[in-house]
Design a protein that fits this description.
Layout (H helix, E strand, L loop, with lengths): L1 E5 L9 E5 L2 E13 L7 H4 L3 E9 L2 E10 L6 E2 L3 E8 L2 E9 L4 E2 L6 E7 L1
Antiparallel strand pairs: 1-10, 2-8, 3-6, 3-7, 3-9, 3-10, 4-5, 4-8
Length: 120
């Protein structure tokens, strides 16, 4: 088993490159983010409280998400860590990216991302 830990900075415009031997991968993702109020929509949609989501992409394809909730806007929160199992992965270089999953979810230099990849 090979273990790789990736620590991208939030708002990286480029995905991180991961080199694997192929086969089955277990991605474990932990991150923090904050919520900004929506500019439009119903009063419920413009409220500060709401869901936080960060999506997980592998080679440009969405493969999962991690979630959290906040009662106020502009407050950085740790999202509940999540795991994704990927099978049939070819050997070589792949791209991994964690991105805001909603228009209200944001991350900046005060937020952190850890992607741990277990290769079986």
């Amino acid at each position: 088993m090979q273990v790789t830990v990736l620590n991208p900075r939030p708002r990286d415009e480029h995905a991180l490159t991961l080199t694997t031997h192929g086969g089955t991968l277990l991605l474990q993702v932990a991150c923090s983010a904050y919520r900004i109020p929506s500019e439009s929509g119903t009063p419920q949609q413009t409220a500060a409280a709401g869901t936080l989501e960060c999506g997980i992409a592998f080679d440009g394809n969405p493969v999962g998400s991690v979630w959290g909730y906040t009662n106020e806007a502009w407050s950085h929160k740790a999202l509940v860590p999540g795991s994704v199992i990927l099978t049939g992965i070819s050997a070589g270089e792949h791209l991994v990216w964690v991105y805001p999953g909603t228009h209200e979810t944001w991350a900046d230099e005060n937020d952190f991302i850890t992607i741990t990849v277990f290769e079986y």
